[in-house]
Amino acid sequence: MAALEFARENGIAYGGWVPKGRTNEAGHIPAHFDGLLETLSENVAERTKLNVMTSDATLVFVDGSTSPGTQQTIVFAAEAKKPYLVVDVRQGISESARQVQAWLHANPADVLNIAGPRASEAPELGARLSKVLGVCRDQLIQPK
Fold this sequence. Notes:
The protein is of the alpha/beta class. The chain has a single domain (2-140), classed as 3-Layer(aba) Sandwich (Rossmann fold), CATH 3.40.50.450. It contains 5 helices and 7 strands. The longest helix has 16 residues, at 125-140. The two termini are 25 Å apart.
């Protein structure tokens, strides 16, 4: 959700898949996130797999917390042989941004999937993710 909010606030095109009913752990994904497609089921693993499969690459943010869904994202990307990078934000914003920038340069993606643990699993991660994306903002905007 933090990556979607960052994109919306910064005028960056976004999309992707959400579970049937637009549900998440907070209840309902707000309507202002338009352009998201609903899966056929409420199963979050289906959403996760579709987001990996319909993207060119996946960027995964972690903070040392345990997240089965985040681990499943990595497995789906590896199985699909799609490029992915796991960024541990505990290394600091500058180092995390440096890693992301270098990886994006080496793995250009028209459609980038950004993933990580849900807010209940990693309450501080969203703010850190937004700071890293802020540093990398120019690389996230695709020329029209």
